Structures are given as structure tokens and as C-alpha cells.
Amino acid sequence: MATLYLMEQGTWVQKEQERLIIQVSKTQKMEVLMREVERIMIFGNVQLSTPAINACLKHNILVLFLNQAGQYNGHLWSLGSIHLNNEMVQIKRHQEHEFQVKISKAIVYGKLMNSKRLLMRLNRKRQVPDMDKVIEGINSDILSLESVDNLDQLRGYEGIAAARYFPAFGQLITNAAFSFSLRNRQPPTDPVNSLLSFGYTLLFNNVLSLIISEGLSPYFGNFHYGERDKPYLAFDLMEEFRAIIVDGMVLRVINNGLLTLKDFEPVASNGGVYLTDKGRRIFLKEFESRINKLISHPDIQSPVSYRQTIQLQIRRYKQSLLSDVSYQSFVRDI
């Protein structure tokens, strides 16, 4: 089952029998069997015909509508796939402080552990000075989580660990054309931040689609909060996968020279730096390769992809919602 990324502006999608016909231009089109598509991510100005929309609803193909930068606008999903009982439990749990803190601690623990292990693994060859000090600091932050009893304090430790992690992450870049010392976003102002932001956006949308397909509402988060109309559960459950799916891939793409500075362009309207269309295609290919990489997960004997691992973690979360089983984050082997 594939994820279909539609990014070329002006693309038109129609349905013929059990196929999707994707018309990119007058001379360029492709056909995809509907049974091979699990989700469609639409970036910007891409049109779906009414028969294509109805076919997606019928075949439970989730359609995510995003802006050109990949930010989530909304989704199309069959009403028959909505599970109101799950949502009622989510609403109840959303009001339970103890549950929120317990889940959030597990999420932050997974994030910090995977961040630390990425630095340890990549530093074996790089041997960055003072990396041991950074790792020791993150270890201290992880140990401090045990005594946390409120979300604000937990967010504080996460922020401290991030302030240690990202400068160390930048020191693992070996391609002299790229440099990184500070994480910035909305907009990203340099190529490395641009890759991190786009990678996190792709990860977020994949997590979001799997949450919806598992019958949960993405709007009832635990760790993240703010405006009511944002899918905060997706922000929560992507945290433990940032380093192991996106950050490691970004370093590999940069250090192996798969992208050059010519693959980025500045946008005068907001001062941001973004991938060109060619750069996006390269990055998307690498992202799909990464998220489909086979690894091991303790809940299943056979190897599974990172995307399936995310789904297994969502099922762990659902079990913690419905059965009072403690949520365990996924920590990648070093």
C-alpha cells in the first residue's frame, strides 16, 4: 500500500474504473490502481474530480489537503470509519491530569532517548569534541523526568534537552557547504532548517493519517496544546520518531551530497529558504525509503517498517486510552 504525494501545481486527478488517472500536464499522465493506494497527500493546487473523491471515500483512502509547504489544512475520510466511542474516551482522558502527565512523560522519554542514541551512533565515526558532555547532559534530563509531576515542568526539560541536542546535531554535518547551529522555523531561514522542517512536516502528516485510520481523533493531545482546531495528538505521537526518521535522514542526505545549495531557493515574501521542486522530489524519495525501512519492534516478531512501527505505537496509545495499560514509547536500538 502506497502513499501518493501530489505536489505538481495544476495536477488533475480523475477516476477510470478502479484506477486513478493523474494528469500532470497535457503530455504527462500516470495511472495508479486504487487498491495499491493507502493515502494521498495533496500539496497546494491539485484538483480531484467528484468521482475520484467518491472512490477514495468508498475505498477508505485517506486524503490529506496541505498547502504547498506541506502544512495541514484538512482531510477527507469516510464517516463510516469514525469511531465515536473512542472519541468519547479521548474526551474523558483529556480531562485527567494524571493520565496526561503519564503519557507525556513516556513521549518525552522516547524523544530524548532516541535523540541521545542518534548522537551516540553517528559520533562513533565523527568523534566530535565535547559530544560526551552533551550526551551526559541529555542523560541528566532523562533522569530528571522521573520526578516530574506537571506538564509545564516536563516541557521545560524537553526544551533544555533540545538546546543541548541541536548544536551537537549541527556538528555532525561533514559537508562543508552546509552549516547549522540553531533550530528555527516558520519560516526556516537556512537549508538545514528547511530540510528539518519539511521532514517533520512529512512525518507529522504520516502520523496524522495513521491516527485517523486507527479510529482516533487527532485533536485530543496530551503534551501539546493551544488552539482547539489543531491535531495535537499527531504532534504528540511524532515526537519519539523525529530523530530516528527525520534527523538521521537529513544528515545522510547532506553528508552524502544528495542535495546541493542549488536545490534551495529563498522566498522574499517571508524570508524563508525552501527546497526547489527538484529538491523536493529527491527528498521525498529519501523520506519514503527511510519510513519504509525495516526494523524490529518488541510487539511483533517479524521485521516491520518505520511506518508500521508508528502504527504499532498508535495502537499502544489506544490501548492505554481504553485499558489503562501504561504507554511505552519506541526507543530505537543503538
How does this structure look, described?
There is one protein chain. By secondary structure, the chain is α/β, with parallel strands linked by helices. It has 2 domains: 2-81, CRISPR-associated endonuclease Cas1, N-terminal domain (Ribosomal Protein L15, Chain: K, domain 2); 84-323, CRISPR-associated endonuclease Cas1, C-terminal domain (Four Helix Bundle (Hemerythrin (Met), subunit A), Up-down Bundle), CATH 1.20.120.920. 49% of the residues lie in helices and 17% in strands. The protein is built from 10 helices and 12 strands. A hairpin with a 2-residue loop joins strand 11 and strand 12 (300-305). 39% of the residues are buried.
Provide tags for this entry:
single chain, 334 residues, alpha/beta, Ribosomal Protein L15, Chain: K, domain 2, Four Helix Bundle (Hemerythrin (Met), subunit A), 4-stranded mixed sheet
Topology:
Elements lengths: L1 E5 L5 E5 L2 E5 L5 E5 L3 E7 L3 E2 L1 H9 L3 E5 L5 E5 L7 H11 L2 H30 L4 H14 L6 H21 L19 H23 L18 H7 L3 H14 L8 E4 L4 E4 L1 H15 L2 E4 L2 E6 H18 L11
Parallel strand pairs: 1-5, 2-6, 5-7
Antiparallel strand pairs: 2-3, 3-4, 7-8, 9-10, 11-12
Helix pairs in contact: 3-4, 3-5, 3-8, 4-5, 6-7, 6-8, 6-10, 8-9
